[in-house]
Amino acid sequence: MLDTYKYLVNTDFPTIRRTELETLQVNLGYLCNQQCLHCHVDAGPRRTEVMQPETVGHVVEFLKRQNIRTLDLTGGAPEMNPHFRMLVRAARSLGVHVLDRCNLTILTEPGFEDAAGFLADNRVEVIASMPCYLQQNVDRQRGEGVFVRSIEGLHRLNSAGYGHDESLVLNLVYNPQGPSLPPSQAELEPDYKKVLFDNYGIVFNHLFTITNMPIKRFGSTLLSRGQFDDYMQTLKRAHRDDNLDTVMCRSMISVDWRGYVYDCDFNQMLGVDAGMCNGRKHLSELMNSNFNMQAIAVMDHCYGCTAGQGSSCGGALGSN
Question: Is the pLDDT of residue 275 over 80?
Fold first, then answer.
């Protein structure tokens, strides 16, 4: 795999600082039942990195100490971590809102047949990968047969109450097929809702559009195809200063499967230490830290979050 780090490290991206810490995003490991072309984590079925119980305990303690409002669980497929359910239950017992970044097909895997019910029972908000409503596009990006299994996963979530019960929120995630910015989130959402309901009887709450980051597997593909420089110029030309106020790193920190802290999930994948830290810091070392106004480490890939309508783990930051 070609590494994009050296092409990103020298940057003129604006300086930004964190405000109030509201969200703890935790990567539970790189093990996944899929291996998608756009994956910035380089996750897959052969990955062995998963968060262990001691580190899960540090996460729960941090939620308590910092009075965190939202726990955002990602991977890999976060549900494949054997301690996933323990962490969800512990967080919910503290009154923390839990997000699960679900690839949908995990809900149809042997041993995970009850996963949709578990998520519903614990009122977990589901943010599900669905990069298109057309089968050929999804299978091209995520693997043969993924679309059909994703539709089955959505049916299971709907059957558990998601999209129907106002307390069971189901969001879908769109990302472009190639080196381009996503279309308007507000304009694309009605199309998604109409096609998925008319063709498959599926309902969901919101559509999030997310920009592909020029790192890891997607970045390597750009380099190998000679498209990296053009894509970076696309991101930089579309940069909007007003998106800087609402980029996700300003109200969250990211934790890897070992418990080390980063300013965002993308910096985590690049191995860029948190701007507030003098070197790499473990979550257990930061239990009582004040994160307000702390520096955030930036590189050129950060333009992916401020281009056009903006991009975050919660979708667009504004309008086109």
Answer: yes
